[in-house]
Structure formats: C-alpha cells, structure tokens
Amino acid sequence: ALLALRGESPRRKLGSLAWGLPVAAVWPLVLVVAGRSPLDLFRAQGLWQRHLSPAGPFGGIAAGVDQGWRTALSLGSSHELYLPWPSELVNVLFLVLFIGLTVIAWRVLGAPYGLFAALSLALPLSFPSGPSPLLSLPRFGLVVFPFFLALASLGRRRSFNAAIVAGGFCGLVLALAAWTSWHWVA
What confidence tens digit (pLDDT) does each residue in 142-156 have? Predict the structure, then answer.
C-alpha cells in the first residue's frame, strides 16, 4: 500500500490499491478452501514453545537480551555451552545487526522497505521461544530482503564492503563447522 501511494496520479494510486487487496486475500482464501483457518500460523507457534508476548516485540527483545546477558556471565563457569559458540550471544548480535539494518533500510530505501523490515523483525520478536527467546532469529532475518539492500548500500564504501565480505565468510565457516559437528545452526 505504501508503494502504491507513491504513484503519480490519484487514479493510479486507487488502481494499485484496488489490485493489492484481492492479491493479499489469495492465501487466506486458499487456506479456507483447503479446510484450514487463516489464523493457523498463530496457533502453530505453540508447537515451537513460542507464545505471544504481552509487550509485543519489546518482550522478545528484553527476554533475548536478558538470556544473552546470563549466557555471557556464565561463559567461564558453565560446561553446557553450545559449541562452537554460545547461540544466545550470537542471536543477540544478530538482533543488534537487524535493528541497525532496519534503520538503514528506512533511511536509504524509504518508508515502504523500512516498514517491511521492521514488521518482519517484529513478528518473530513478538513470539519469543520459552527456552531461548531469540531462537532462529538469524534464519528469520535471511528472508528479509531490505536487509540485503541495506547491506548493499553500505557495501558501496570499500571499507564496509571488506568488512561485510570478511564477516560473512567467517560466519559461514563457523556455521559450517557447527553443522558438520552436528550442532544446531539455525
């Protein structure tokens, strides 16, 4: 809707919005025809020990940062570490990265892409997992294409480009090491 409102003439704006509503209704209609509820997504979260936080995404952020802080404090004393890295700390680092990329996407790409990134991040944060509030956050962020556009805008500078490539390579090596040693990688 925000992209449609950027159109030139009022008639084109109205036409774009008129097409947008039926297209957005296709998936819920497919679910109804298949005998399922369009709200099954929210019920399925219980299978993953996820619950809707009363504070919305801020509840997920607070719980994730708290879990990350407790993990950081127990690094030297605990032998229950997820090797090759403590996943709670990695999830907090990805949360900080994704929040920064959301701000960059909003500033560089405009409100429609920034809003898409913010809502895409707010949805998993609103349903924190019981044992690990930010469980699978890096995987959820992989499908948010404004993050990649924001990274590309940062990559125009040589120093940022080198940092992005080096960081991505190191992350890939660590994820591959975890995966080949049968550790959870998402």
Answer: 899 999 999 999 989
